[in-house]
Amino acid sequence: MAAVAAAAIVSLLGLALDSPWLAFFGLGAAIIGAAGFALHLIVTERRRHEVAEEELAAQSSFLESLIESMGSIAAPHETEEVLDQTRREAKELFGAKATLLEPGAPSLSGAVVLPLRIRGEEIASLQLVRAKPLDREELARAKLLADFACRAVENTQLLAEAKEREAERARLTDQLIIAEQEERRRLALFLHDGPVQSLSGISLMLDAVIDSLEGGRIEEATGVLDSAVQRGIWKLQDGGKVTASPTAGV
C-alpha cells in the first residue's frame, strides 16, 4: 500500500511538472502495485479459507468420532464394561495412554485426570497421558466423554436396580397368590369338615324335635333341642368365633 501511494504521488508530480513520462511511470507503478496487493489479498484470503475449512473438517471428524465413541460406551450393560470401553475410546480419540485409576489412587505428574462420579460418589478416575498436552478444546471434550460415561454407568446401575425390584415384586406377587390359594383351601376344608357337618347334624336333630312335638313328646323334644343347642354352642366356641350361654328352654 505504501508503494502504491508513493507511485501515485510520483504520477501526480509528473502531471504537475508537465512530464508525461514521469506521470506514466508513476501511474503504471501504482497500477502494478495495486494489482499485486489485490492478488496478495486474494491468495491470502483463499489460504485462510482453506485453513479454516481444514480446521472445520477436522473438528467435524473429531465430533463424529466422539459421537461414535459415546454410542460405543452406551452399548455395554455392565459397569466394568462401560468403564473399560470409555478407556479404549479415550485412548483412540486423543491418542493418549488411557488408564483407569481406583478412587484416591495417585496419578502421574503432568497427566490429565478426570474423576468419574455417580450420585456424588467417585467410582474411578480416567488418566490421560501423552507427549503433547491436551489443549483447552480437547480437555473440554475429554470432560464431556467422562460425563457421558458417568451417565452411562448410572443408567446401567438404575437398570439393574429396576430389574432387581421387578424380580422382587414378581416373587412377592407369587407368594401372595400362593398364600391366597392356601387360605381358600384351608377355609374350604374348615367349612366342609366343621360347620357344614355340624349344621347337618343339628338339622337332623331339629327334625327329630319336630317329630317329637308332633307326637306330643314334649320332654323328649326338649332334651333333643337342648342337645342341638349345646352342640352348636360348642362348635362355635371351638372355632373361636363367639361364645354364648346355653338356652334354658324352647
Could you outline the blueprint of secondary structure elements for this entry?
Blueprint: H1 2-16, H2 20-74, H3 79-94, E1 97-101, E2 112-118, E3 121-129, H4 136-193, H5 195-214, H6 218-238
Antiparallel strand pairs: 1-3, 2-3
Helix pairs in contact: 1-2, 2-3, 2-4, 3-4, 4-5, 5-6
Any overview of this molecule?
This protein is mainly alpha-helical and 250 residues long. The chain has three domains: 2-54; 76-164, GAF domain (Beta-Lactamase, 2-Layer Sandwich), CATH 3.30.450; 194-238. The chain contains six helices and three strands. A three-stranded antiparallel sheet has the order 1-3-2, with helices on one face. α3 (79-94) runs antiparallel to α4 (136-193). The protein is rod-shaped, with a radius of gyration of 50 Å. The model is unreliable at 240-250 (pLDDT under 50).
State Rg. Answer: 50 Å
Averaged pLDDT, please? Answer: 77
Shape: rod-shaped
- What percent of residues are in strands? 5-15%
Query: Which percent bin holds the helix content?
Result: over 70%
Query: In the CATH hierarchy, what is the architecture of the largest domain at level 2?
Result: 2-Layer Sandwich
Q: Can you tell me the CATH superfamily of the largest domain?
A: GAF domain
Strand/helix succession:
HHHEEEHHH
| Largest β-sheet summary | 3 strands, antiparallel
Spatial separation of the terminal alpha carbons: 136 Å
* Counted beta strands: 3
> Segments where pLDDT lies below 50 for 5+ residues?
240-250
Class of secondary structure makeup: mainly alpha
